[in-house]
Design brief:
Number of helices: 3
Distance between the termini: 42 Å
Number of strands: 7
Radius of gyration: 16 Å
Largest sheet: 5 strands, antiparallel
Helix content: 10-25%
Order of helices and strands: HEEEEEEEHH
Structural class: alpha+beta
Number of domains: 1
């Protein structure tokens, strides 16, 4: 029994050390800026959009797994959230859109001024495509 527990802990440590976005939970990040937020296929505004823009003022939110460095947008920064869900609450809604981990990205400064990044949202593992 003790050997099995040690083996399980060692395996768990390996998962944490090598990283996988699935190793932690998504964090709900409410929109807190006056910007509309595009949902892109990569951490750059040059990528195709994979979802509707998320608009401010309706209580909309994204669910972020982690963050990574991507395109620098003006003087706002270069932090992007790996977005697995978007809550749309505007006219004609409520609606929720889901994304496979690593397939949708939102620009953190436009979502919440990058507050989740500054408050402990984990960095994405390097294996997630940008």
């Amino acid at each position: 029994m003790k050997t099995a527990l040690v083996g399980a802990l060692a395996a768990g440590g390996l998962v944490c050390a090598t990283g996988s976005a699935d190793a932690y939970s998504a964090t709900r990040v409410p929109l807190r800026t006056s910007h509309g937020v595009g949902v892109y296929a990569a951490a750059t505004s040059a990528a195709k959009k994979v979802g509707d823009d998320v608009l401010p003022g309706y209580g909309n939110a994204i669910w972020a797994m982690c963050w990574q460095v991507g395109q620098n947008v003006g003087n706002a920064g270069d932090v992007w959230y790996d977005t697995v869900e978007v809550e749309y609450n505007g006219p004609g809604f409520p609606n929720v859109q889901y994304f496979t981990d690593g397939t949708a990205w939102t620009f953190a400064p436009y979502v919440d001024g990058a507050a989740a990044f500054h408050n402990g949202l984990p960095q994405c593992p390097q294996s997630i495509p940008s």
